[in-house]
Each structure stands twice: as C-alpha cells, then as structure tokens.
Amino acid sequence: MVRLLVDREAVQGRVGELGAELRADYQGVEPILVSVLRGGVVFLADLVRAAAMPCLVDFMAISRFDASEDTGVVRIEKDLDLDLSGAHVLVVEDIVDTGLTLTYLLRVLAARGPASLRVCALLDKRARRIVDVPLSYVGFEVPDVFLVGYGLDLDERERGRGELLAVDDLEAVRDNPALLDLPTRPNDAWRPPRA
C-alpha cells in the first residue's frame, strides 16, 4: 500500500553529489536556477545549499488546463522576474515523467535567449516518458508509481517529508493519511540506480 522508496539519507547524499557536480560544471559562472512552484522548492533549496556556489534563483508558477495532459502546454501564472538573455540557466525539477510540460517550458525559456539551458531533475520517471527531454543531471530513476515526500505532495500535503514514499493504493491513503507513517525503516528503502 505504502512503501519507503528512497530514505532521507539517500536523498540528501544524492543531492550533495548533484551540488558538487553543479559547482564543478558552473565554476566561474553565476547561473540562474529556475524552479516551478511548488514541488521543486524543497529540492531547489537543498541543491543551492549543497552546490555552495554563486547563483541566482527565480520561480515560475504554472497551471494546467484540460488539453495540457496531452500537449504539455500550460498557462504561466507567475513568470520569472530575472532576464535570461545571455545567462546560463538551469531548470531545477522535482520530477520528470511524460516530458511534455518540461519540453514546453524549455521552449518558452529558450526563446528568451539564454547562453545555455540545462535541466537538473531529482527524479526521472522514465517509464512514463512520451517526449524525450534532455536531462543534464538526474538524482534517481524511479518506477511508475505515485510518489509522496521531499516536495512531492498528496493533495498539497506531505511535501516536507525528507524521504520519498511510493503509494500503491492512493484512495486508501486519501481515506487514511496515517498510512503514510507506516514505512519508516530505512532498511526497507529501495535505492534506485543512479543515472
């Protein structure tokens, strides 16, 4: 029903590794890290601390409408405040699944003339991919299950968990959210292979 997929130590360890990669790759440059509200905020905050490098941070908020499930086209509710022209831009995503929305966002951002545009995703749900989207940095490849924790929500709750839980019976968990507190032993965590 609910199982521990990635424990908090594995999450923090991998975020630390990604931060070190970014620090090395962006040495001498001050990139703009862009996150889509709200899910990516937890990952972005930890990643910025782990990278410990000069960078700027900005946010977008998007909303979906009926056709967006098939097209990835979304409405931008809050746009970036920073000018991307000539900047090195890193889109920081919590999870990439179909790739449709991210592909659309990358087109929108590329039209603003950045010097470079790359993606750092904590989670890659490749099994759901419809559009191949270039991911420069990936934390974990995860199976096609509903995930909760570390920024990922269940009805706007549970984002603050340090671990990632796989929810196999979503309705049962919606009826009884206390089920999310059951899988707490780190030894039960599946550690996905790193990309």
Outline the fold blueprint.
Blueprint (H helix, E strand, L loop, with lengths): L1 E5 L1 H18 L6 E6 L3 H11 L4 E8 L4 H4 L3 E4 L9 E9 L3 H11 L5 E9 L12 E5 L4 E3 L15 E4 L2 H6 L20
Parallel strand pairs: 2-3, 2-5, 5-6, 6-7
Antiparallel strand pairs: 1-9, 3-4, 8-9
Overview in brief:
By secondary structure, the protein is an alpha/beta fold. It contains five helices and nine strands.
Describe the overall structure.
The protein has a six-stranded mixed β-sheet with strand order 4-3-2-5-6-7. Strands 1-9-8 form a three-stranded antiparallel β-sheet. The protein has five helices and nine strands. The chain has helices at 8-25, 41-51, 68-71, 100-110, 170-175, and strands at 2-6, 32-37, 56-63, 75-78, 88-96, 116-124, 137-141, 146-148, 164-167. It has a domain at 9-142: Rossmann fold. α1 packs across α2 (41-51). The chain has 195 residues and is α/β, with parallel strands linked by helices.
